Amino acid sequence: MTKILAITGGVGGAKLALGLSKVLNEDEVLFLVNTGDDFQHLGLEISPDVDSLLYALSEKNNPELGWGRKDESWNFISTLEELGEDAWFRLGDRDLALHTIRTQKLARGQSIQQVTDELSAALGIRHRIAPMSQSKISTIVETPDGKLGFQEYFVREKCEPKVVNFQFQGIETAEPNPVVVSWLKQCDGVVICPSNPYVSVDPILKVPGLKELLRSKPVIAVSPIVGGLAIKGPAAKMMKELGVPPSPIAVSDHYGDLLSGFVLDKTDGDQANDISIPSIVTQTVMVTLQDRIDLAKQCVRFLEELA
Amino acid sequence: MTKILAITGGVGGAKLALGLSKVLNEDEVLFLVNTGDDFQHLGLEISPDVDSLLYALSEKNNPELGWGRKDESWNFISTLEELGEDAWFRLGDRDLALHTIRTQKLARGQSIQQVTDELSAALGIRHRIAPMSQSKISTIVETPDGKLGFQEYFVREKCEPKVVNFQFQGIETAEPNPVVVSWLKQCDGVVICPSNPYVSVDPILKVPGLKELLRSKPVIAVSPIVGGLAIKGPAAKMMKELGVPPSPIAVSDHYGDLLSGFVLDKTDGDQANDISIPSIVTQTVMVTLQDRIDLAKQCVRFLEELA
User: Fold this and answer.
1) Which residue of B78, B83, B103, B104 is the best one to mutate when testing the A interface, meaning the one whose CB has the most A CBs within 10 A?
2) Which domains does chain A have, with CATH numbers?
């Protein structure tokens, strides 16, 4: 039996997570997810990356939009807008139920892990999702015009401001989620799913003590950059703004000696030889469910070879 | 110019309120509304009677349901139910926007009056709505099996438990809304709209000092009981359970010497002679907008005669 920790952020990572959930049982994979994007909005506790994973694993995600829930309606947010309120964060009517339940449970004193477990159960998800920490950590995007909360940058400003740096407020005093620590003691390897290295994966790696625990295992990463572009989201744009060429090699370099292996798309096959660690070239672009399953299988096999 | 205070509770009262808003300008009528039904649910501050009035005056009420907003959808509440949560209070997706905005404004420290004014403005309502008090007052229904919060009795238990008595928690220390007090100084008369005497109008009349202020004016009430039944809601059922015959006379007796005049439906015309105060018999059942306007005109004329 292989026991894997899968690190994931938004929608790209959640695609591979679904694949992994189809090829591994619930005692074979734990999903470690970023909570740096979490924020409070309209009185609701919103955890975008946890929710992307909840919807992906329960197959309730919205394939047309690429975010949120399927079969969604928008009457709440359009009424909010008609009444003159801020409507930049597009909360769907169905999606709202999830945030309302989370907010109520947290207000009653439940931990982020408990709430995530209960939401997973309610959605019929068998695999466990572990938020990176039980503490509140907030990703701040530094731009030439000042600091923005991550959702302000990502949704309200549509990733248009140039990024200069990132801060993870609250991370110094945060502790890794004990569920992750205990899983890591028994697990055989780690897959970093194709998520944004700066704002999805780095917050996880910077939770004090977590990177050191990961180092004792073979760690592979799947490039979120394909053909110089990010499949989804601002990763490539951020890399350019930070003076880094948007390439798989740069992603591999970003993770540095944490990695034992790297997975890049066949589009970038010519770059494989320039990567100094073991790598595999395959189709990382996941359109169908079968694509997700195939990539998951290859990641598991690659990790087994490295172990 | 006639200056009127209109006392109103739920949907029945709101129908006459709309009529009054069509025949009187915003400096001629103030709507004094019950907030005893207000409660917190799913983290939201919900004011059912204020909302019934907001939706009626902005003509956004749902005529099919008889409560809530028109063009409503129910994806939030049905998703909440799918996720295993309590869904007995049917919050529509559009309606939810109003509660969310109220909750946010109250959390920022705005008063109930300020919030109501801003919601009115957002809905394009010119007439002013004045909640009975700025303090929190909660109607409790005493039943043989114990006490129920009003919405638990009204919505969750569908008015099935027998009523024994009512309590208005917090009323002893409440003060009347200053907007109402100042309006009463200049106004010529008061209309008690056809709302439930026990749970819509009594909480208002029991706000310390308010009844005494009303006594200095001609006060008329429109019977919410027609032909032994309530047009909507549990008024007739409550009367029977309290040992009172559900009749216009009983309603008139309930308000006692506060009243200068009484308005009863033509269905009950034969009872007019048994009422000891001046009364008019007319059509009080309001189906069309014209019905609302006609009854409003008659109430204004009746008050002018009594003044």
Assistant:
1) B83
2) 4-141+168-306 (3.40.50.10680)
Structure tokens at B179: 């907007």
Beta-carbon contacts of residue A212 (< 8 Å; ≥ 6 apart): none
A93-107 vs A48-57: helix axis angle to the nearest 10?
A: 120
Whether B117 and chain A come into contact, CB under 8 Å, resolves to no
Contacts of A122 in chain B (CB under 8 A): 82-84
**Those residues with Cβ within 8 angstroms of residue A105's Cβ, 6 or more apart along the chain or in another chain:** A114, A115, A118
Name the minimum distance, in Å, from the CA of B199 to any CA of chain A.
29
Alpha helices, DSSP H only, in chain A?
11-23, 48-57, 75-82, 93-107, 112-122, 150-151, 178-186, 202-205, 210-215, 235-241, 248-255, 289-306
The residues, ordered by sequence, that sit 6+ positions from B248 with a Cβ below 8 Å of its Cβ are B223, B225, B226, B262, B264, B265, B268, B271, B275
pLDDT at A101 (0 to 100): 98
Three-class SS of residue A196? coil
Q: Exposed e or buried b for every residue in B184-214, given b needs 16+ CB within 10 A?
A: beebbbbbbbbbbbbbbbbbbebbeebeebb
Split at pLDDT 50, 70, 90, the class of B147 is very high
Residue of A73, A80, A82 lying closest to B73 (CB–CB): A73
pLDDT at B139 over 70: yes
pTM of the predicted protein model? 0.93
Contact B43 A42 (CB under 8 A): no
Residue in chain A closest to B125 (alpha carbons) equals A83
- Spell out where A132-181 has E strands: 138-143, 146-149, 165-169
Pair A155, A273: CB distance under 8 Å: no
Cβ pair A194, A219 in contact under 8 A: no
pLDDT in tens, B93-126: 999 999 999 999 999 999 999 999 999 999 999 9
As a whole number, the mean pLDDT across chain B is 96
Average pLDDT over residues B194-212: 97
DSSP 8-state symbol, A176: B
Q: Which amino acid is at A255?
A: Y
A90/B contact by beta carbon, under 8 A:
no
Interface of B with A in 18-47 (CB under 8 A): 42-43
